[in-house]
Each structure stands twice: as C-alpha cells, then as structure tokens.
Specification:
single chain; 14 strands; alpha+beta; about 50% helix
Length: about 400
C-alpha cells in the first residue's frame, strides 16, 4: 500500500515537470515536509527537499522499494530516534530520475509532537491556576447570586454568611439587614392574611344565614328577595375568595403535603370537560375537547383538579360569545403528555404573568364585573410548582394557550 502511494506521488511529480508547472512551492504543497525527495535530470539536480538536505544518504544505498534506517542525530534533533524510510526510485526515458522516500512511522515528527504536548500541558496548568484564582476571588459574589435566586421561593428566610470585613463583607452585612426587614414584612403579611381569612368566615356565615332566613319569609317583597339573592351570590364569591386565599397561603408556606398517587388524568379531564361544556353552552360559547385515553400521572388529584379547573374557568370567562375554547390532552412520548387549554380571549399581559410567578398577588384584571383579584393565577402556578410541573403560557391579543407538561 505504501509503495503504491509512492508510485502515485512520483507520477504526479513527473506530470508537473512535463507540463512546466513545476516549482518548489508546488512540490511542498503536494508532498509537505515529510518526504525525502531528489529530482535529477541528465545529472543536473532540479530539486532537493528540506529533509533530503538534512539527511545525506549515499546513492548506492538507495534502490527501488528499499528500506533504510537513519539516526535522527543526523538531522540535528535533541533526542536519538530511528527514522525508517521507504524509497521508490523511478528512471524515465527522458533522463529524469525521481528518488522519493517517506518515513514509515512518522518518527521524525516525534520531537515536534513532544513540544506540542508540553505546550498543551503548560496551557492547561496555566488555565487551571487562572480558573482557581478567579473562582477564589469571585466565590463570594457567586454565592450572593445563587442565594438571591432562591429568595422568591424562600420568602427571604435565608441569608448570607459574612466571612470577611472587606468591601464584600460590608456588602453582605447590608444585604442581610435588608433581608431582615423583608422577612418581617412577609411574616406580617402572612399573619394578617391568615387572621383576616379566619375572622371573616364567621361573620359571613352569620350574614348568609340571616339573608337565607329573610328570603324564606313570606312578608318580604319579591323585589327584596331578588336583592337578597344577589347578596347571597356576592357572599358566595367572597367565601370562595377567602378559601382560595387560605389555600394559597398554605401553598406558599409549604404546609400542604400533596397526596402523590397515580391517577387517570384522562378521566379527570373528561369530568372537567363535561361540566365546562354545559357552562360554555349556557354562555353561547364553543367548548371542544380532544382527550387521549389512559394517560396516568402521579400527583395530588384534588389540587391538580383545582388548578386545571381555574385555568379553564378563566379561559371561558374571558372569551367572548361565539368564540372557541379548546381542551387538549395528548401524549408527547411514551412517558410524557401535555395538557393545552386554548382560548380566543383578550390574552394575558406579560406583566400579570410575571407578577403571578414572583409575588403573592398578580396585578388586578378589570372587566365589566369590576376588579378581579389575581389570586386565581397565583394559585394555579403554586399548585404546579408544588408538583414540580413545567408549564408555558403563550398569550397574544387574540387568545392564550396554557400548556402543562406531565410525566407519567
């Protein structure tokens, strides 16, 4: 195989000579520096490669298909290696003689490879030292950055350890003082919401009983009974609000332990769709569903039911008459599924989504019924986060798509 390679290269060199496109540059481009090459025509030397100049081999020792071993100290190498050459000699009728040899083991480049290896090792050592130095200097700032990322979930219950009295130590001390104030604020907010929720339940129950009793009385005019019925509806909404607020507070404080059981998500979806189909029809809206069978997931069925219920309820609430709401549950792999709720409403603004993901309340949403609090959106996200479920909200002015990604 090596002899065939040498023969082909010899023919290529002869072709360059015959077509007057021969030059030292062209030969080097084709043959590189590893070839031992001499070109002689009518006893005149036309070309000698660099390696042939460094390694003088008597012509009588060279013959076609011969193998020679040459010491590298002849080529001014620092180490002593054996370089083994394979030769091809070709004599042409026009008096051209081409003597071409190539190193069989590339040992002539071993010193160059050693230098390259030493350079790479040195570069790696310098890089490692540089990385260690940078890591040592920036470690406090990295710790601050990582801790700050956890703050929204930990409600500022974490802090920094002050390890020095320099500028970074002073920065950590200042941040810890700020965190202490924020912790007090969140504690006050949590206690206030908890107390308010519990204290409101009793008077609301009393008012509800009085109104129900008044409605049952025969001496109360029909007009007043209708007003009382409207009041009961508002009390019911307020009770739902309080219940959501208490549940959200418990979710935020992580005092709820989800009942992680394996259940049929397809059946849960069927139950929801049966209810919302009737609700959408009563409001002259179109509700369609596409549910794949036998999709099982692990989680708290009651909490996930509530989260999905709120998503669909909002989709129907903010979709105009004659518009469509789609409920899609499909597999995306052997152990993965996605739930999509699509609507043709006005969309959810990005700042509302960001606020719901990062604080206790989302920004208020206004509609014809007045101010709608943002607890519903926050409650949905809190339940999904409790189950470590990935979600994605895509929203434009022509509608929204809420995606929940499940793993079975």
């Amino acid at each position: 195989m090596l002899d065939e390679h040498l023969i082909e290269d010899s023919e290529q060199i002869k072709f360059l000579l015959d077509n007057n496109i021969y030059s030292s540059t062209s030969l080097k481009r084709i043959l590189f520096e590893e070839y031992w090459l001499k070109i002689i025509k009518n006893d005149t030397v036309l070309y000698v490669s660099d390696i042939a100049k460094s390694i003088e081999i008597p012509p009588e020792k060279i013959s076609d298909k011969s193998t020679l071993t040459v010491k590298t100290n002849q080529v001014n190498f620092t180490a002593d290696y054996d370089v083994i050459f394979r030769f091809h000699v070709k004599n042409y009728d026009d008096g051209t003689n081409i003597i071409l040899g190539i190193s069989m083991d590339n040992s002539i480049k071993q010193n160059q490879k050693k230098l390259a290896t030493i350079f790479l090792i040195t570069l790696l050592i310098i890089s490692a030292l540089f990385y260690y130095l940078i890591n040592f200097l920036l470690k406090p700032l990295v710790n601050i950055s990582l801790t700050l990322r956890r703050l929204s979930q930990e409600k500022f219950s974490i802090g920094f350890i002050q390890e020095s009295n320099d500028e970074i130590g002073f920065l950590i001390e200042s941040i810890n003082l700020t965190f202490e104030k924020l912790r007090n604020h969140f504690t006050y907010q949590k206690d206030f919401l908890s107390i308010m929720s519990h204290e409101l339940k009793t008077p609301l129950a009393v008012i509800k009983n009085h109104i129900e009793s008044a409605i049952e009385r025969e001496d109360i005019p029909l007009v007043m009974k209708q007003k009382f019925s409207n009041d009961l509806e508002q009390i019911s909404k307020l009770n739902q609000f309080i219940h959501r607020l208490m549940l959200l507070t418990r979710l935020e404080d992580k005092t709820i332990i989800p009942k992680n059981i394996r259940f049929n998500l397809s059946e849960l979806s069927q139950e929801l769709c049966q209810f919302f189909t009737d609700l959408a029809d009563s409001q002259n809206k179109i509700f369609t569903s596409e549910i794949s069978n036998q999709i099982f997931v692990i989680g708290d069925r009651e909490l996930l039911y509530r989260a999905i219920f709120n998503i669909v309820d909002n989709a129907i609430k903010y979709t105009s008459e004659g518009k469509e709401i789609q409920f899609i549950l499909k597999r995306t792999g052997s152990k993965a599924a996605v739930l999509q709720i699509k609507d043709q409403g006005a969309g959810i603004s990005e700042d509302v989504i960001m606020t719901a993901e990062s604080s206790m309340f989302a920004k208020s949403i206004y509609d014809k019924d007045g101010i709608k609090n943002g607890i519903g959106m926050r409650l949905i996200i809190a339940i999904l986060n409790l189950h470590t479920l990935q979600y994605k909200i895509e929203s434009t002015h022509s509608g929204s798509i809420f995606n929940i990604f499940f793993k079975s």
